[in-house]
Design a protein that fits this description.
Blueprint (H helix, E strand, L loop, with lengths): L1 E3 L2 E5 L6 E4 L3 E8 L2 E6 L5 E11 L2 E10 L5 E9 L12 E4 L9 E3 L2 E6 L5 E11 L2 E10 L5 E9 L11 E4 L9
Length: 184
């Protein structure tokens, strides 16, 4: 574990970027395919994969894979939906990381702080492409704007120059400070 301003952090074991705060640790009593896993209320510097139904030890869940935003290392999964009512406490923002990936081991950072990686976006306008040197390396990106008010919401990854970042191509970053959840 590292520390960010006095708060212990859990980091990717591969590249050491912080992925969770100690205050967000909910449980160390989970099991992943490779052994012990930790459940967190929130994560940072991660990207999320596609949703899929997966049979886990405690039942069937809709989950999406969680990867490190810097190096692409698979860290674990995020619970989206529990089909068993007794498991619904896991739904939402809980991420489970294999213990071998965290500790002494998605969200991205946008221009204005935390941001989310989406595979699809709607009601947007895509601006011109430009090369931009981001925290995770050089990318060709295009700013994305709200189709209604033209506010910059984030960007679209058009091209990643590093092999470990190729999974972002064609996906959208929406900055948390620019969006709100509705009808959830």
């Amino acid at each position: 574990m590292g520390e960010i301003t006095g708060n212990p952090t859990y980091s990717c074991r591969n590249c050491r970027i912080p992925v969770a705060l100690g205050d967000d640790l909910l449980s160390k009593s989970f099991v992943a395919k490779s052994g012990q896993a930790y459940m967190f209320a929130h994560a940072m510097n991660v990207v999320l994969g596609y949703k899929e139904d997966r049979e886990l030890l405690s039942g069937v869940f809709t989950v999406c894979e969680v990867r490190c935003s810097k190096c692409g290392e698979e860290l674990g999964w995020k619970y989206i939906r529990a089909y068993n009512p007794r498991q619904m406490y896991k739904e939402g923002s809980s991420e489970v990381f294999g213990a071998e990936f965290v500790g002494l081991m998605a969200e991205e950072l946008g221009r204005n702080g935390r941001a989310f990686l989406f595979s699809h976006a709607m009601n947007i306008v895509v601006g011109p492409k430009e090369d931009r040197n981001l925290m995770t390396g050089l990318h060709t990106v295009a700013d994305i704007y709200c189709a209604d008010c033209r506010e910059v919401l984030g960007w679209k990854y058009e091209r990643a120059y590093e092999a470990s970042q190729k999974y972002k191509e064609g996906k959208f970053i929406l900055e948390k400070s620019k969006i709100v959840k509705e009808n959830w």
